[in-house]
Amino acid sequence: MTRSGALLVISGTGGAGKGSVVDRLRQLHPELWWSVSWATRPPRPDERDGEHYWFRTRDEFEALRADGGFLEWADVYGVLKGTPKAPLLEALAAGHDALLEMDVQGAHSVSAVYPDAHVVFIVAPSRAVQEQRLEGRGTDGRADIAARLDAAAAEEAAARAAGFTVIVNDDLDHVVGEVAAILDTLRSGAPPSP
User: Fold this and answer.
1) Which of 16, 82, 176, 185 has its CA 20 to 30 A from that of 25?
2) pTM of the entire predicted model
């Protein structure tokens, strides 16, 4: 009998570096099934359709949402983002360990549907560092950066209240090591400590 796959969710505040953590984890564990979310925004210069997101129109997104095709979805600063349900369910049922990267709203939704999912919530070491990272992207306007910074403390508090594992991203190698250890624990069937 095939064991059901483990579900690891990486979330965090904007500018915390969750994308960097996920990229490194995927390099270390290429066998992880990777869920590619849908998004209704154009790709950033370094993003490719089907790899970073499936970049879709609002109409396409709303049609799949109306059919119940998303595990979770949210309006994030005016952009609709969602995790297609069917591919993830098939991967887990086949025994593949799965990795999701999503904002805090999505992480709460997934953990409500899949209580066995383990959510790691990444935060920047300080608001100043978070602001520098957001500005360094060169993709967000001043108002968007301010909104993300304003939301960060509440998002972190909600993550802690939900029992998510909160990790400060002050050293990428260390954070990736911590997350890899959590993955190993999930694969062993033991519950990771929060």
Assistant:
1) 82
2) 0.83
